[in-house]
Amino acid sequence: MSDLITMDDLSNDEILEILDTAERLLPVANGDVYAPLLQGKVLGNLFFENSTRTRMSFESAMKRLGGEVVNLSSVGSSVAKGETLYDTMQMVDGYSDIAVIRHPRQGAAQYSADAIGIPILNAGDGAGNHPTQTMLDLFTIRQAHGTLDGLNVVLVGDLRYGRTTHSLSHALVRFGAKLTLVSPDSLRMPTEIVGDLQSHDTEVIESENLSGAIADADVIYMTRIQKERFPDEDEYAKVAGIYKMTADDLAGAKSGMIVMHPLPRVDEIDPSVDSTKHARYFQQAFNGVPTRMALLCRSLGVEVPKEVGE
Amino acid sequence: MSEMRRVTAICNGTVVDHIPAGKSLRVMQMLRVSVGRSNPISLVMNVPSGKIGRKDVLKIEDRELTQEELDRLALIAPNASVAIIRNYSVAEKRQIELGEELVNIARCTFWNCITQDPREPLPHKLRVVSKNPLEIRCSYCGRSQTIDQLAESII
Question: In B, what residues contact A, Cβ < 8 A?
Fold first, then answer.
């Protein structure tokens, strides 16, 4: 049984192994091959916070592998009646074999893992971590560049509250990425994370300027300024819409550079970018299915055959 | 031994010596020795020390601090020395040691940590990431904690 709470739970070799497994599962994720590897298993999909892609891709991943899904959302459940997370998790322990949890409170995934015995996959805890997103991001980057080693990656937007960038940056520096962190001053990456990143033997630059970082980039990872995480609406208004990428901005970019976004976007990527060769965010969203299939199999101790579907 | 002249020897209790100068009030706060108790407490501040230049000394009468209480002390005075006094002589010397994890000693200070809900029943856990320089993070949410903040959230 293995939990995935932060990227520290995986070694570099394990990350690469999971990405290889995800690649083998692509035909299953596409629906071309049916491989009921998780038949008889039940996933508890626990979303205490809104989600579109994460929730649907986990559900799709489980069902395409022949498993079942039970859902919980905070609206319409005992959570709305004030049930503690601990009590809710005791029920989940009895109803499912593995659980995916998204929660507005930071640390909720680790807390759940401590509370019960079934494997827990963290699907976002407040402004903390989102490691399954990171795995699909790494899958997308490797798909485009053939490697994770030594890339020049620019992370843009809300780096303070953005859990996707927290998890992704931790993973990327372990593969020797040069990171440029582009954000307004008020949304800079938390200092303890920057400290962690700088402890690796790689370059980490902080900047407020996106246009200067485009030419050298292999990956530009845009993020939404998350209104819901601001304690104060005035503070949000000061930085809303600060970065807007259009197709014209990418004229000087490297030919193989990819633009990623965990989605949903608001106005930080103009639709004109969608039709460029750089846009990779919808592919990225699809990649959630094979990657999460690989993670579900791993945590449930189910081996994925070398030739899936045979 | 100049500080011994400032405060008389105690018959029974605990002496915490070699507290960094000026930190003894914080030590009292961390140990909660002054909360709801009537033991006499003597405090000596800023006295010369051969070992650390200047130091504070705390003498708590009729109370032997437990190892769990001493673990809290390790957060702010890891090099302090502790003697249990019985009948005017040192009966026992206790070691202060900062462990790898502090369980139910202080609450995480991050406002959005899952442990901020007082009804959640699992223990409060803080992880000592580094002893020198001291860095402590919540075992659940991963946020770094400052000692000043932790002193306010002692359990």
Answer: 108, 110, 112-117, 119-122, 137-144
